[in-house]
Write a structure and sequence with these properties.
Elements (H helix, E strand, L loop, with lengths): L4 E12 L2 E7 L9 E5 L6 E4 L2 E3 L2 E7 L3 H5 L5 E8 L11 E5 L3 H11 L2 E6 L12 E4 L6 E2 L2 H8 L5 E4 L2 H14 L3 E4 L15 E2 L2 E2 L6 E2 L4
The structure holds flavin-adenine dinucleotide and FE2/S2 (inorganic) cluster.
The site of flavin-adenine dinucleotide has 22 residues, from strand 4, strand 6 and helix 1.
């Protein structure tokens, strides 16, 4: 059932204490907004968003949480199944990208492909990764504006072509804000992904299977 391709890890680059980029050989450009199931023998296969693609290498941006995300930093080969999900619907104009925490991963790819404005929020300066051109917020005010990334969104006043990725609480608040303020766009968040192929039902969220439809219209979240 699972069709993993064994691929060479080309480079791992540490970005902060808990986060790194992992570059894995992959020849075809993956669609923006998709993800792969990444399998390291001896560990569970885990879902990771495509955060970039460079001349034959797919990039993942990984936050260390548990055994698999820790071990992948040292991997020399991994099994990749994908790209999975669906391409994010492209923007009509310049998008506003709203990233909370490790939700920055798929938005980095959008930012590189589409441009626009990138709003990036974290708890504290030490939790952020360096992203050139991003407008920053931190909960404790240690970098950028003190507050949440949704405060930044209110400040820039974007109404259309909003793409957001972050923790479930952030997406829930943004869904509410979108209904109140008539905001249009798409959001994605984390759920448990097991099969990645629409079979097991583990990833159900907002009446959808996230592994098949990772980008949900904001007002339906
Ligand atoms: C579509 C999708 C894309 C993702 N993209 C990224 C990404 O680009 N970068 C990144 O750092 N993380 C991403 N994640 C989260 C990542 O999959 C988890 O951090 C990872 O599975 C943790 O595995 P672990 O063995 O290190 O930790 P564990 O100790 O196994 O788990 C730590 C926590 O991670 C979450 N988790 C564990 N297994 C899964 C799973 N199968 N599916 C979803 N969440 C899980 C749970 O909240 C759990 O409590 C994504 C998740 C989804 C659903
Ligand atoms: S992860 Fe199995 S249906 Fe989505």
């Amino acid at each position: 059932m699972f069709n993993f391709k064994v691929k060479e890890v080309l480079r791992a680059k540490r970005l902060n204490k808990n986060t790194y980029h992992l570059y894995v050989r992959w020849d075809e450009k993956p669609p923006v907004g998709t993800f792969f199931m990444v399998w390291l023998p001896g560990f569970e296969a885990i879902p990771l968003s495509v955060s970039g693609w460079y001349r034959g290498a797919v990039r993942f941006t990984i936050q260390v949480r548990g055994p698999t995300t820790k071990a992948l930093f040292w991997a020399t080969k991994v099994g990749l199944m994908g790209p999975l999900g669906r391409e994010a619907p492209p923007p009509l104009g310049k998008p506003t990208l709203v990233a909370g925490g490790i939700g920055i991963a798929p938005l980095l790819y959008m930012y590189e492909e589409w441009g626009g404005t990138l709003l990036y929020g974290g708890r504290s300066a030490k939790d952020l990764i360096p992203v050139e051109g991003a407008i920053i917020s931190t909960d404790d005010g240690s970098k950028g504006k003190k507050g949440t990334v949704l405060d930044l969104l209110e400040e820039v006043g974007a109404k259309r072509d909003i793409y957001a990725c972050g923790p479930p609480a952030m997406l829930k608040a943004l869904g509410q804000m979108s209904r109140e303020k008539d905001l249009r766009g798409y959001g994605s968040t984390e759920t448990m992904v097991k099969c990645g192929m629409g079979i097991c039902g583990a990833c159900a969220i907002s009446k959808r299977l996230l592994c098949k439809e990772p980008w949900i219209p904001l007002r339906e979240i």
